[in-house]
Write a structure and sequence with these properties.
Rossmann fold; 40% helix; 8-stranded mixed β-sheet; globular; alpha/beta; 291 residues
């Protein structure tokens, strides 16, 4: 259920939806609310901008311009066909191009899951467009690679990443009627309503969508770039019951991020934006408004 703050944001700041053609070569569908300092929110797999449905009005009511794109391959955005179209540098280009298209020099950047991975890439490779960085249950790319090499437990958790390297089959399985309900309900009953699951299921069954989502994983596995240390102030929010991403991914984060704080949620799973919307919102606003 949306919070009272969310309802106020919906009343004061109507939802704006538009498609924006970027000079990175794709057109993205973008939702936004509010006025004030810009906050770009990047969703993860297998979702889309609907992830932030509660957060857009809350951030708007808190005095921010909240902006949530469907990333390339997702939702109503373009879905290029090639694996190389989803290489990390292309995803970074999308974010920096979106910032320019919206008329900003830099934004606060928030990411969950794959959106968090992309946010890490942007902060490392294009720090000029990032003011502050917020990460929700998404690993730093180099930390994740290191964990796959050194941690048997994380390799077991990441079985799907290896399975996604297979041709054709993963996208077919993803588009099956029961796949997403089983995935979302790993966090327990009540986090996602049937209507919300139907929204994501409908999106993933659009032409080219499932393949695009899997191609993020395929392109990432082929990418060999190492990232410079991130120097933007960073907040990491982590649900400790995440079945796919262990808390060990937080160990040694100071190798990759110069200045960061971690807030753990012991009773939350991977789907932190949906499970703890009020707590996540409060943490983000406190961080984006340093005293």
């Amino acid at each position: 259920m949306a919070t009272s703050s969310g309802h106020l944001g919906e009343q004061r700041f109507p939802l704006e939806e538009r498609r924006i053609a970027l000079d990175s070569g794709v057109t993205l569908s973008v939702k936004s609310r509010g006025e004030g300092p810009p906050v770009v929110l990047l969703h993860g797999f297998p979702q889309n901008s609907h992830t932030w449905r509660k957060h857009l009005p809350m951030l708007a009511n808190a005095g921010f311009r909240a902006i949530a794109p469907d990333m390339r391959g997702y939702g109503a955005s373009d879905k290029p066909k090639s694996v190389s179209d989803y290489a990390p540098p292309r995803l970074v280009d999308d974010v920096s191009a979106l910032v320019r298209s919206l008329g900003y020099e830099k934004v606060h950047l928030v990411g969950h899951d794959w959106g968090a991975v992309v946010a890490f890439y942007v902060a490392a490779l294009r720090p000029d467009v990032v003011d502050r960085l917020v990460i929700l249950n998404g690993p730093h790319p180099d930390a994740y690679t290191r964990a796959l090499l050194k941690s048997q437990a994380q390799r077991k958790r990441s079985w799907y990443v290896f399975a996604f390297q297979l041709p054709f089959l993963p996208e077919r399985v993803l588009a099956l009627k029961g796949t997403l309900p089983r995935l979302f309900r790993l966090s327990g009953p009540g986090v996602f309503s049937d209507d919300e699951i139907d929204t994501y299921t409908h999106a993933i069954r659009q032409p080219g969508a499932a393949r695009a989502m899997v191609n993020y994983y395929r392109a990432s596995a082929r990418y060999r770039g190492r990232l410079p240390i991130i120097k933007r102030p960073t907040l990491v929010l982590w649900g400790e019951k995440d079945v796919a991403l262990g808390t060990g991914l937080l160990d040694g984060l100071d190798r990759y991020v110069e200045s960061f704080d971690v807030q753990r949620f012991p009773d939350a799973s991977h789907w932190l934006p949906e499970e703890k919307p009020d707590e996540v919102h409060s943490a983000i606003v406190r961080f984006l408004r340093p005293s």
